[in-house]
Amino acid sequence: MALDIQIQRITKGANSAASTIHEQFKIQSQDFNVSYDRSPISAPMPGGAVLLFDLGQTRVNISMSGIAAETGTNITEGGIMIADKDDIEALAITQNWWNGIIRVVALGDEYQVVISSVKLALSAPVINRWTFNISMTGKLMEY
């Protein structure tokens, strides 16, 4: 069973409902991972002491993977198009997705992200379907 993850290119409004959606896809993901990273700074001091600085910055890393819908099927579910290989590829190569605010909605949580990488592959068991892996970095959505 796949998780339905929405990825949207938006103009942020005062709240989630007031945001304008310019383009969106539903990605059917088999795996969805969220991790939180902190990057404290350590500075070595003379005599072997170490000075630690924690600036309180937390970064969200998101990755998702699965099998893309068949290319060219243009299947919609609830009025939202399910992403096929070409749609997932567009996330990486289309300038609109670089310049706008990207919102990922998963299980009630919203994240503002930047796409780090998109990987597509053909595998032997499902030779006619593309598998994908998308990596993103960002933060929880703030309004």
Question: Could you characterize the architecture of this molecule?
Answer:
By secondary structure, this protein is mainly beta. It has one domain: Pnp Oxidase, Chain A (Roll). It is built from two helices and eleven strands; from the N terminus they run E-E-E-E-E-E-E-E-H-H-E-E-E. The relative contact order is 0.24. The mean pLDDT is 90.
Question: What radius of gyration results from the CA coordinates?
Answer: 18 Å
State the major sheet. Answer: 7 strands, antiparallel
Name the strands of the widest sheet in spatial order. Answer: 2-1-9-10-11-6-3
Which ranges are low-confidence, i.e. pLDDT below 50, for 5 or more consecutive residues?
A: none
User: How widely separated are the two ends?
Assistant: 32 Å
Overall pLDDT level: 90
**Helix percent band:** under 10%
- The CATH first-level class comes to Mainly Beta
And the CATH topology? Answer: Pnp Oxidase, Chain A
Categorize the overall geometry.
globular
Sequence of secondary-structure elements: EEEEEEEEHHEEE
What would you say about this model in short?
The chain has about 140 residues and is mostly beta strands.
